[in-house]
Specification:
The structure holds two protein chains of two kinds. Chain A is built from 22 helices and 17 strands. In chain A, the strands form three sheets. In chain A, strands 5, 6, 7, 8, 9 and 10 form a six-stranded mixed β-sheet that branches. The longest helix of chain A has 18 residues. In chain B, helix 4 runs antiparallel to helix 15, helix 9 crosses helix 10 and helix 10 packs parallel to helix 17. The two termini of chain B are 16 Å apart. The relative contact order of chain B is 0.17. Classes of the chains: A alpha/beta, B alpha/beta. Chains A and B meet through helix 1, helix 2, helix 5 and strand 4 of A and helix 2, helix 4, strand 2 and helix 12 of B.
Chain lengths: 545, 415
């Protein structure tokens, strides 16, 4: 060194943030030497820094990175001033183009990307993945054994979890999908599995809500993953499972506060991965951003991250902790339309509110139903009661707390029964009701439907706000009772809340397609042709609508 | 970045902190130690290396917008060769189409991964009467990188067959030829991996069969794959008018968008130990796969036999073009195209380099792979060569399939 290097200058106390920081020629030589000869930018970093503070909008999950930030400061001179928010909130707070921070560091920027895509005009910030963790299910050992015993090939899927939740045997905690990334990831995962297309969810895949059964198992919610962990510790004896990041579950297991450790289930039908991107919101901070990114991606930092947070490191260079060697399974495709995600979250609703719907099944017991047709109807109900072991069957089955009214009709309503699903006995009661053999010689479709609306009117009065729907299964034409026109006149005269109850006709045998379609359209429902496929399939299709 | 700190600032800075007794404390002291230690280490390394690499003056930093070819400039040997020529490269990474559709202010060069984006850039520069000079150095075909279980499942179903090659191993071939027509057909039919027997290979996957790409609106490999699929679906011919382009775009859209929100840097995802679950089939460039295998061979002594390559029966060779946006940037372009060391290194990183007549061949690359103990694939002359539609038509299809936002070019200052 012939000339005094810049490093000897005392460090300026407060660098002008807008002043371009450009390297003088001599400093460039030092860096060039470092880079060219030693090949590691970090080794040279410590001599070159100017201290910079970057304001970071961060997901609250990243609080556990706090101790590493001191190392970052020491090694690079960059100080991250973290402002923590629950992720989806942060994603919401991140209005494309209207930023108030230098960087954003999120558990996932998928929701932000959807907003960005929608804004159509804003440049995409530079983004770098910093670590990985899948959202999976932690289950108490006994529950895990039971789940595995029932699952095909011992590999548990989201469908198995939903099935057990609907049956009341899995009570789980999960953070609020509206506010947290872990909750949203879990919800997208379970909804994608429920749709069963193997593709990213589209609007039509979620037009009916198949997650009611799953949701009844959720007994604990929280506004952040950290809060979820604390709540789980406090209420662990009343819960069987916890849906959150793999890293959180491993940390909980290592933390010594659990009465029973949680076994991690990587659902067979897939998971949603969080990749903790660091986004550069203010392009003027590029130089400091580069330093932070290089530091984060270095093998030594990745190793520290893994040891401290139990998130998975990037690349294969860092030898994984034995707990992080499990096969995480397949990543599910994430929807690429914001409207789909928003609809999904809205349908799932507030996890604190009760979820149960009231469904009125209006079943044609005219003589033409005798034989194979009624057998098919009985099979459909057995399927909904838990006998259907297909993935969709597990999602759409009757669930804890669901209110069911079954009505048999011929020339008039022959019998009706109200059941609130609690246990086996309630499901048996439904089963014995459809097992009856009192077929009638005539079919009064519209009188029966009018009767069902009378019932709905009573429910709406006694339980305001309760969602109600009617399923009308018939195999023939109307032969007695009132006309469709008369039904429509009476329907129109009912209270607004009752008019909001949709009817889903299942057309079977000789039933009149045009008439039933019209009834569906009038009431806001949809007709399903059970002739085109089996009756049980038709029942499954309109579950949750 | 060549603007230098104004000299007027220096005296002011040197008299800062008058209240301190000793100017060398804390950070400043550490800086001194580092400043002394590293050049010394550096000089030792120099002598050990036997030749002086560095001109001590005039290292130029070039600002570049690069897509997947940033991997080339991240290579230490490449950096060293460039440093010998007094060049350092500062990379801003983005997708090729983004390179072309965002502003060029402050950049010395753009290096998109394929011809469509290069043409967009050159057209735009020409319209604005701005500096642009193109250089070609190497090429690489579009391929599908996957895992043994997936390739074998496709083979079970008659969609893939091992590709003959020097030292090819019938039982565990690294290379397969994929029947593109049938592969697209399966995907378009909404078939899932679980529908075609992936379980037989002790793997579960209920996802729809498709090859994942990055964002079609941003990445060259994604746009090129779209072009490839369109070519196959259009009966091995290129759509030549708007009506045909629109029809083909409508036809292929469902398959291409089923993957939902795309992720960036697919090859990085493919490489990680969890890659089989995250990115079981990804559209990449051949050079990325070879670079990975060469690294594997160096680190473990043998190539990774679980990660394998599917060569589409309809092939497309991508031709990345380096475009200098300033005369300064042109020097690097010249080097890329002519410097033997850089060319050699490009080959060692898996690229097919251009020979003296400017023709790309795989001969040299495949010989190098053999030398490295990595079986080379046979160059199959019977593969169909796909052609991309004209730029306006390709753009039309990309924006329609990807629902892409309009270009976001900031107003350019005259340069």
């Amino acid at each position: 060194m012939r000339r005094r290097p810049h490093h000897l200058r005392p460090h300026p106390r407060a660098p002008h943030p807008r002043a371009p920081r450009r390297r003088g020629p001599r400093r460039r030589v030092v860096l060039a030497l470092c880079l060219a000869l030693l090949g590691t930018a970090t080794a040279c970093g410590s001599g070159d820094e100017e201290s910079t503070t970057l304001h970071v909008l961060a997901s609250s999950e990243l609080r556990d990175m706090e101790p590493l930030l001191a190392d970052l400061r020491r090694d690079t001179g960059v100080d991250l001033d973290m402002e923590y928010k629950a992720t989806v909130d942060a994603g919401d707070g991140l209005r494309p183009g209207a930023y108030h921070h230098d960087l954003a560091w999120l558990s996932s920027d998928r929701y932000f990307q959807l907003r960005l895509k929608e804004s159509r005009s804003t440049a995409k910030p530079l983004s770098t993945t910093t670590m990985l963790s899948p959202v999976v299910v932690g289950v108490k050992p006994e529950t895990a054994r039971a789940l595995r015993a029932r699952a095909k090939g011992g590999q548990v899927s989201w469908a198995d979890i939903a099935d057990a939740a609907a049956a009341g045997s899995v009570r789980f905690g999960m953070a609020d999908p509206k506010r947290t990334n872990s909750g949203l990831s879990a919800l997208v995962g379970v909804a994608t599995a429920a749709a069963g297309t193997g593709s990213a969810l589209r609007a039509k895949d979620i037009s009916c809500d198949r997650l009611r059964g799953f949701r009844t198992g959720q007994k604990l919610t929280a506004d952040s993953s950290a809060d979820l962990r604390e709540q789980y510790i406090a209420h662990q004896d009343r819960l069987d499972a916890l849906i959150t990041y793999e890293s959180e579950l491993l940390s909980l297991n290592a933390g010594g506060k659990l009465h029973e450790k949680l076994e991690i289930i990587y659902p067979k039908d897939g998971m949603v991965l969080s990749d903790y991107p660091l986004l550069l919101l203010d392009p003027a901070k590029r130089k400091a951003y580069d330093k932070v990114v290089n530091w984060l991606k270095s093998a030594s930092t990745q190793k520290k991250i893994m040891e401290r947070t139990l998130r998975r490191p990037l690349g294969a260079d860092v030898r994984r902790d034995p707990r992080l060697r499990a096969d995480i399974g397949n990543a599910l495709y994430f929807p690429d339309q914001r409207a789909v995600v928003d609809q999904l979250v809205e349908d799932y609703g507030d996890p604190r509110l009760p979820t149960a719907r009231h469904v009125i099944f209006l079943l044609d017991f005219s003589t033409s139903m005798r034989g194979a047709r009624v057998a098919s109807l009985r099979a459909a109900f057995a399927g909904l009661s838990g006998a259907d072991t297909s993935a969709t069957g597990k999602f759409v089955r009757f669930y804890q707390g669901e209110r069911v009214t079954v009505m048999r009709f011929g020339g008039r309503v022959l019998a009706e029964r109200d059941v609130t699903v609690g246990g086996r006995r309630d499901l048996d009661s439904v089963k014995s009701f459809v097992a009856a053999d009192d077929f009638d010689n005539s079919t009064a479709i519209w009188s029966a439907l009018d009767h069902a609306y009378g019932k709905a009117s009573g429910i709406a009065r006694d339980h305001p706000g309760q969602p109600i729907s009617i399923v009308l299964m018939t195999d023939g034409e109307n032969t007695s009772g009132i006309t469709r026109q008369e039904f429509e006149r009476r329907y129109a005269a009912r209270a607004e809340t009752v008019r909001g109850v949709p009817t889903f006709p299942l057309r079977f045998g000789e039933a009149d397609t045009a008439e039933l379609t019209r009834a569906a359209r009038t009431t806001g429902g949809r007709m399903v042709d059970a002739g085109a496929r089996s009756l049980p399939e038709a029942f499954k299709e309109i579950r949750g609508c | 970045m060549t603007a230098e700190r104004s000299n007027a600032e220096e005296p002011r800075l040197s008299i800062r902190g008058p209240s301190r007794r000793l100017p060398l404390r804390g950070r400043a002291l550490r800086s001194l130690v580092t400043a002394l230690a590293f050049p010394v280490a550096g000089l030792l390394a120099l002598t050990a290396g036997g030749h002086l690499l560095l001109p001590f003056d005039g290292v130029t930093t070039l600002e570049g917008k690069i897509a997947s070819k940033s991997e080339f400039f991240e290579d230490e040997k490449v950096q060293r060769i460039l440093m010998k020529h007094g060049i350092r490269v500062h990379i801003t990474r983005m997708g090729s189409r983004d390179i072309a559709t965002t502003g060029f202010d402050g950049y010395d060069f753009a290096f998109p991964s394929g011809q469509p984006a290069a043409d967009m850039i050159k057209n735009d520069r020409k319209r604005k009467n701005a500096y642009a000079k193109g250089h070609s150095a190497f090429v690489s075909p579009i391929v599908l990188a996957t895992y043994r279980e997936y390739a074998e499942t496709l083979r079970d179903n008659g969609l893939a067959r091992p590709r003959q090659g020097m030292a090819a191993d019938e039982k565990s071939p690294l290379y397969y030829t994929l029947n593109m027509k049938r592969f697209i057909g399966l995907s378009a039919g909404g078939k899932k991996w679980s529908d075609i027997g992936i379980e037989k290979h002790r793997t579960t996957n209920g996802n729809r069969i498709l090859a994942q790409t990055s964002n079609i609106c941003e990445a060259n490999h994604a746009g090129t794959y779209l072009g490839l699929v369109a070519f196959v679906e259009n009966g091995n011919s290129v759509p030549t008018d708007n009506a045909a382009a629109d029809r083909v775009a409508r036809m292929i859209k469902p398959t291409l968008v089923s993957q939902g929100l795309p992720s960036e840097q697919m090859f990085k995802t493919y490489e990680v130990p969890e890659g089989k679950g995250l990115a079981p089939i990804v559209v990449v460039y051949e050079h990325q796969y070879f670079a990975y295998q060469i690294r594997q061979r160096q680190q473990t002594g043998k190539p990774d036999s679980q990660r394998v390559l599917l060569y589409p029966s309809t092939q497309f060779l991508t031709e990345p073009e380096y475009i200098a946006l300033t005369p300064k940037g042109d020097r690097l372009g010249e080097l890329l195209a002519s410097d033997e060391q850089l060319q050699r290194r490009a080959m060692e990183l898996g690229f097919r380099v251009l020979d003296s007549s400017g023709k790309a061949t795989s001969t040299e690359l495949y010989r190098f792979l053999e030398d490295q103990g990595i079986p080379a694939p046979a160059s199959a002359a019977d593969d169909t060569k796909a052609t991309l539609p004209s730029l306006p038509l390709l753009e039309r299809m990309i924006t329609s399939v990807g629902d892409c936002p309009p270009p976001n070019r900031t107003p350019e200052t005259a340069s």
